[in-house]
Amino acid sequence: MEEKQPKQKPFTEQFDTVMAFLCLEAIALTCFGIGGATGLKILEIVGFFVGAFTVPFIRLNFSRKDLSANFKWLIPLGVFMLLMGFSGFFIRYYGGFGLTSIVYCLLESLGLLGFFLLGFGVRQIPVVKREYILYAILGGLALYCVVVGAYSIVRYGLFYAARYHGLYYYYKGVLFPVFQEGKALVGFSFAEASLDYAVVPSMILGCAGAGLIGRNPKKDPRSFAILATLSSIGVLYSLLIPYWPSLVVMALAYLFALTYYLVRRLGGDNPNKKARTGFAVVYFALIAVVLLVVVLLLLENRLGLINKLFNAVLGRVPSSVQAAFSSIYDAIYNGADNAPLHQVNLASLLFGYQPEIVDGRIALHFSRFFEINVLWQNGLIAFLLLLGIVFFFIKNSRDYLALGKEDLPFRIAVVAMMLGLFVYMSLFDDEMPLVHDYVFAPFGQSNHFLLLFFLMGLSFLPSKPKEVAVNE
Fold first, then answer.
1. Mind giving me the DSSP string for 317-336?
2. Cα(293)–Cα(368) distance, rounded to whole angstroms?
């Protein structure tokens, strides 16, 4: 008589612990930024495959009907990921339609897809405790801040920004400050970098401390102590430079968290309803303002209204705004100066500026606003998709805060990190940090952008199929 073979366990039961470890390790290494530019490419590959292996866990909780119900946002998000990798600018920057260029562009798109899946999929793995996800993110960021911050303080002392003029050198994927005493750095093999480019991890880390609001230290002292310790490293890092823009963004994240928490506590019997009403007013007002600004920016070369406004209020147009206009004109006219309106270059407008290459180099200039850089590098289609995705995830974040299954302090920390990262890059984006080597390091192809997509996946609440919603 034949013995019955034991039934093999499904993938989700055999490898749940392994997948949990891989997911947490991938996001921790990404936050630390290990390996510099080369390491980032490897992490994009790892993130894509680990994210893909979370799909069986996603299928445990969601069906094809759920997938169909979310096509309306999945397709635009997928197109945006594709355009962030493949654009007229990056194809030109990487050398044309050669194999190397295609591989580099493909890795960027797959990396974004992978980290979004990674964030959404890790929530579906039952053995993963939610607090461990937060510790993996903050641990990677804190390690970066400790390594770079300790080296800087030991070598150069406290409050070194005023003495070193924000100059850093780049070595093995890490940025360190450089003292120049007003002299040109001749004969050095390293490259300089601006201070703005080095403080992003500390800013994100500090914003996560917003999750302390509403967390009871007596009820869960261990979690409170860990979050307080890790987030304080980010605050301390920015204080010891000091770097005020980072601290201002952190303060904004804390103000948001405090406001939301107070609305929940003082909102009476139905705080979510009152919060939704206030949110709707602000949300649609913000959409109207953004659409108006976009139209004015695209027509500024002909109308000049924004220039006139700055001149009337400040008596000048800030250099950051002038740089933004230059990027917009490059996208619209592909670099042509004073071109008439009917000579719009559709290829550069839709798919990104295609710069001239002179002696093997590309003349690059950037604005301080990430959205404008997306228009410049990736084109109008990607820019409009970005705006749509931003507003979608603003609404999704509201729902996540109200309906997410994780505890409220965890949800606040996740949303605060997304808010801080997006606000900071919208106002202080720095994509040309390496001066001597003319190395281009766009935010859209950085480990911080991968982290943003991970957080978007982590906080995403899929729409329910209509028939399910009706039955409920």
1. --HHHHHHHHHHHHHHHTT-
2. 16
Q: 118 in helix, strand or coil?
A: helix
Q: What is the pLDDT along the chain (472 residues), one digit of tens a residue?
A: 455 555 667 777 777 899 999 999 999 999 998 767 788 889 999 999 999 999 999 988 888 888 888 888 889 999 999 999 999 888 888 877 888 889 989 999 999 999 999 999 999 998 998 899 999 999 999 999 998 888 777 776 776 655 544 444 444 444 444 444 333 333 333 446 566 667 899 999 999 999 998 888 888 889 899 999 999 999 999 888 888 889 999 999 999 999 888 887 776 556 666 667 777 888 889 899 999 988 888 888 778 888 888 888 888 888 888 888 888 888 888 876 656 666 788 888 899 888 877 665 666 667 889 999 999 999 999 999 999 999 999 999 999 998 888 888 899 999 999 999 999 999 988 776 655 455 677 888 889 999 999 999 999 998 887 754 444 4
Mapped onto helix, strand or coil, the DSSP state of residue 434 is: strand
In the structure encoding, which two tokens stand for residue 230, read together?
């890790």
Are 401 and 411 a contacting pair, CB within 8 Å? Answer: yes
Angle between helices 244-266 and 271-298 (to 10 degrees): 140
Give the sign of the dihedral formed by CA 64, CA 65, CA 70, CA 75: positive
Rounded Cα gap, residues 431 and 441, in angstroms = 5
How far lies 218's CA from each of 1, 210, 225, 323, 447, in Å? 62, 18, 10, 51, 35
Distance CA 230, CA 166 (A): 25
Please state, in angstroms and rounded to a whole number, the distance separating the CA atoms of residues 317 and 329.
Answer: 16
Q: Where are the alpha helices (DSSP H) in 195-268?
A: 195-198, 200-208, 221-239, 244-266
Number of H helices, E strands in the chain: 24, 5
Peptide bond into 462 cis (omega under 30): no
Residues 144, 98: Cα–Cα separation, whole Å? 35
Rg (CA), the chain: 23
Rounded CA separation 84/444 (Å): 7
* Sole residue written with tokens 């609001």: 213
13 to 18, 25, 56, 120, 423: CA distances (angstroms): 10, 20, 10, 18, 40
How is residue 445 written in tokens? 């192809």
**Predicted TM-score of the model (pTM):** 0.87
Distance in angstroms (rounded) separating the CA atoms of residues 273 and 276: 5
